[in-house]
Amino acid sequence: MSFIDDIKAQAKKDIKTIVLPEYMDSRTYEAAVKIAREGIARVVLIGTPEEIAANKGDFDLTGITVIDPKTDPNRQKYIDKFVELRAKKGMTPEKAEEQMMSDYMYYACLMCKCGDADGAVSGACHSTGNTIRPALQLLKTKPGISSVSGFFVMDVPDCEFGENGRFVFADCAVNVDFDSAKLAEIAILSAQSFEAFIGAEAKVAMLSYSTKGSAKHDDVTKVAEAVKLVKESHPEIKVDGELQFDAAIVPSVASLKAPGSDVAGHANTIIFPSLEAGNIGYKLVQRLAKAGAYGPVLQGLSMPVNDLSRGCYADDIVGVVAMTAVQAQKA
Fold this sequence. Notes:
This protein is of the alpha/beta class. The protein has helices spanning 3-12, 26-38, 49-55, 75-86, 93-102, 104-113, 128-138, 180-198, 218-233, 245-249, 251-257, 275-288, 314-330, and strands at 17-20, 42-46, 65-67, 119-122, 149-155, 166-170, 203-207, 238-243, 269-271, 292-299, 305-307. It folds into 2 domains: 3-140 and 301-330, Rossmann fold; 149-292, 3-Layer(aba) Sandwich (Rossmann fold), CATH 3.40.50. It has a 6-stranded mixed sheet, sandwiched between helices. A 5-stranded parallel sheet has the order 3-2-1-4-11, with helices on both faces.
């Protein structure tokens, strides 16, 4: 069974409500129909009758909840909540209403915040920033978490490394500037994400161009310090570094470069030292190894909100909705 089939099966065990706010794209409707047919989640679409009619094409939305934001009985509740959450930023009922009606991602996040939905998925027509910004403003990060990060689940065919060829790669999508504290936080969240999605113990490798002091530079020290921070705050997590990628996943290399490590040679959760490295790394594996790359999945938010590539297919939306539902199960 493929990774995404495993995730769909997991999502079906405890059905969650996921909002799709991008009424203007036919892929949204195609995905919603597939999700409902497969029983992966309860799908909510946001749009006025006119907006839905103009964009849904021939898709039959029977059994799919469609919320008209102009007539929704919860509309005032959401306006009040928006004002409550953003009052210190000068939010007024008039501004809240205008924001909700001009950008349905705000409406979706308010549904989540008020307990009327479990998660949201957007990005087929909007930038990552337009997806993350409402979530940060309204849902905020988990207690003790400073920022959101993004990971990919990599499913590499015919691969002897990782967890039967499955890995989490992070951060490949969100943070540009990493210090040791940020790297440590990403490592902790990624270990939790690996265990939630793969169902096995995370073995976290903090990558560098150096292994165990083989090179000296501030960039190497940054990674080594991050490892110390993870071990201090979460001693239950198996983590090691700094490690080069081959030392992280290949046992024979690990035995030479990092003997005695309980992670080196067996890593399945890969933390890159920069966004640049992470983004290049996942795309190299995706293209050269013909690997499945599922994400970016956002981690660190108080409730699951996930982003899509603007080049995605309807089946990609289905997969991300399933992953969002699984995140909601673990919340």
